[in-house]
Write a structure and sequence with these properties.
Order of helices and strands: HEHHEHHHH
Strand order of the largest sheet: 1-2
Structural class: mainly alpha
Bound molecules: NADPH dihydro-nicotinamide-adenine-dinucleotide phosphate
Shape: globular
Length: 253
């Protein structure tokens, strides 16, 4: 099989995987964080797990930038910076700021996430820096790039702010849960997931690419069921949880 066929199969596989993941997670919440439970095999510390899961996404995109043929293309460079900025934060900052990062995290989840991150970074990096038609500099003025970039940056700010608010609820060695009340938490239970979904939707629009769309669809499939599960968890565990708060999308769901 030549590489282009492999790239196409992997891109389609991400869409197929997203469907499986969405329906599986509606039935079985991923066993980490507040949904950690016995029966999922060996575990490592969550902080270490996050670092191991996420670092391939940071390095693989850089690798394929240099293996590609777009090193002098300004649009390709901006896409590299957008992706690398997100994954630099997620790999090298987020795990080390976590409160309760010594909690357990199942190795089986790390393996799943590793496989996904490797495939996803490969299809996005290979497309943007090798297979795609060359993006002209005028792409910077295209409504698709402008809309996508605004979504991406807004989503990233919401995601970072919301994760920061969650961290501020705990002392450094605390593991308990409290009701978050600041920022977009006034409207939804999982603004960090909302921000993440907005980010990768923006990525799909800005790159106007099939791998970008696959990643956005997968992110929704992965995070929307968990947002619904988390929302029910809060309602069950906190009698004073705000009843008008939605799970994921302000004023809607
Ligand atoms: P959560 O919101 O479940 O938890 C984030 C951190 O905040 C954890 O350390 C958690 O602790 C802590 N926390 C959560 N709720 C409370 C609370 N009520 N009181 C005190 N502390 C709390 O997010 P995830 O761990 O699922 O995800 C982390 C980041 O990774 C997010 O930004 C998310 O968007 C992103 N992500 C992206 C995915 C993708 O498909 N692109 C997939 C999964 C995550 P604890 O671990 O003890 O629960």
């Amino acid at each position: 099989m030549d590489e282009f066929n492999l790239y196409k199969i992997l891109s389609i596989a991400v869409f197929a995987f997203a469907i499986v993941v969405y329906f599986s997670l509606l039935l079985i919440p991923a066993p980490y964080g507040r949904h950690l439970r016995r029966g999922w095999g060996h575990t490592v510390k969550a902080r270490f797990g996050w670092f191991i899961m996420e670092f391939p996404a940071f390095f693989i995109i850089i690798l394929f930038f240099f293996l590609g043929n777009r090193q002098t293309n300004p649009v390709a460079l901006i896409f590299l910076i957008m992706w690398a900025a997100h994954y630099f934060q997620r790999t090298f900052i987020f795990p080390f700021l976590m409160k309760g990062g010594d909690k357990k995290f199942p190795i089986v989840l790390i393996v799943f996430a590793l496989c996904f991150n490797i495939i996803n970074s490969y299809i996005n990096g290979r497309y943007l820096f090798y297979y795609s038609p060359v993006y002209p500099a005028s792409w910077f003025y295209d409504p698709r790039f402008l809309t996508g970039a605004i979504f991406f940056i807004t989503g990233m700010i919401i995601n970072l702010q919301s994760d920061h608010i969650l961290r501020s609820l705990r002392n450094s060695c605390e593991n308990s849960y409290k009701i978050p009340k600041r920022g977009l938490f006034k409207y939804i239970t999982c603004p960090n997931y909302f921000g993440e979904i907005l980010e990768w939707t923006g990525w799909a629009i800005a790159t106007w690419s099939i791998p970008g769309l696959a990643f956005a669809v997968f992110t929704f499939a992965n995070l929307a069921p968990r947002a619904f599960t988390n929302h029910h968890w809060y309602l069950k565990n906190f009698s004073d949880y705000p009843r008008d708060r939605k799970a994921l999308i302000p004023f809607i769901k």
